Amino acid sequence: MLSGLIQNDGTDPEDLKRRLLSGRYSEIRMLFFLGRDILRWLDQCSEWALRIPELAAAGIRGQSFAGLLTAGPPAAVKDKLIRWGVADYVSIFSQATGLNAIFQEPPAFESLAEEFLRNYHRYADSSYRCFMESQPHAVIAAANFRFDLYASGEYMQLLEKQWGGIE
């Protein structure tokens, strides 16, 4: 309606704009918190790789694992994401990582310009590219670095099994 692509049903344009920007802000917050988890995982992977002299010498860094997550995750991970309904995982993971390269905490709604709210995905994509180019790193493949993703409940069940049902 705001763009004139569909007929206005009488809704106030300012209300439509507020709802649009509020929705975009919710998306930014969701991606920010996902990105925080991704960066934590990248740090853990990087620390692990640095403890193995061959991997450290090969230049495997956090960016190596970010590229693996976005450009070539293991088939089982890709299949699980698709089953969860996450078809565009590349954009989601890269934008989440990009937003965390910019913000240390989720920004307040009032601190973001309307331009940023409307087009945050472009800014997040650019920030992800900057993150990937910020330090030299080796490109790695899923054939050599396997991992899996778990939903929160799924992970809790896995831990319960490993711990023998101890609460």
Silhouette: globular
Look at the structure and give the mean pLDDT: 89
Helix content, binned percent = 55-70%
Number of strands: 0
Query: What's the assembly state of these chains?
Result: single chain
Number of helices: 7
Fraction in beta strands: under 5%
**End-to-end gap:** 52 Å
Structural class: mainly alpha
N to C succession of SSEs = HHHHHHH
What gyration radius follows from the Cα positions, in whole Å?
19 Å
Question: How would you characterize this protein structure?
Answer:
- It is a single chain.
- By secondary structure, the chain is an all-alpha fold.
- The chain has one domain (13-162).
- Helices cover 64% and strands 0% of the residues.
- The protein is globular.
- The N and C termini lie far apart (52 Å).
Key terms:
single chain, 167 residues, mainly alpha, 7 helices
Write the layout of secondary structure elements.
Blueprint: H1 13-50, H2 53-57, H3 62-71, H4 75-83, H5 89-102, H6 114-133, H7 152-162
Helix pairs in contact: 1-3, 1-5, 1-6, 3-5, 5-6
Summarize, please:
This protein is mainly alpha-helical and 167 residues long.
